[in-house]
Amino acid sequence: MKKLLIISIIGTMVLFTNKLANAQSQFIIVDTTITADCEFFPFGTVDTIYGLSFSGSVVLNSDSSLVRLVYIDGENNEWLLMEAYTLITNDTNIGYSKHCDETCYFDANPTASIVVEIIDASVTVDTLFSLTVLMA
Q1: Is 122 helix (H, G, I), strand (E, B) or coil?
Q2: Domain range holding 60?
Q3: Is residue 10 a part of any domain in this protein?
Q4: Which tens digit of pLDDT belongs to each residue from 9-49?
Q5: Which residues pair with 123 in a beta bridge?
Q6: Going edge to edge, which strands form the sheet with 51-60?
């Protein structure tokens, strides 16, 4: 029974990955390092997205370091894209590839901005990856 369950889960993950690969998406190249609180508007002409992930890196400089990326949609709802601080990681240099916390999948979300919150740290945002069609 356990083998059947594992095979079923793996099969579902493969189908899900294939759907994601075939979905319409947009890479947004940001290529910048941020060391202080800010807000930026990377979406350009994209009006609606159905998911958002982040690729880049974080450097935590002390025990009190914090980096948080929060996606703000067009209706001022806040969605956690990424968060790093020393209590949840043992590393001070962390790499991310298509990482998302609460932003993996949405129903239609009008685009707006990303708010960056930083305490004694830095974040390099290489790319953002947004889904531009609803996943079936």
Answers
A1: strand
A2: 25-131
A3: no
A4: 333 333 333 444 445 778 899 999 999 999 999 988 888 89
A5: 34, 58
A6: 25-34, 121-131, 51-60, 93-99
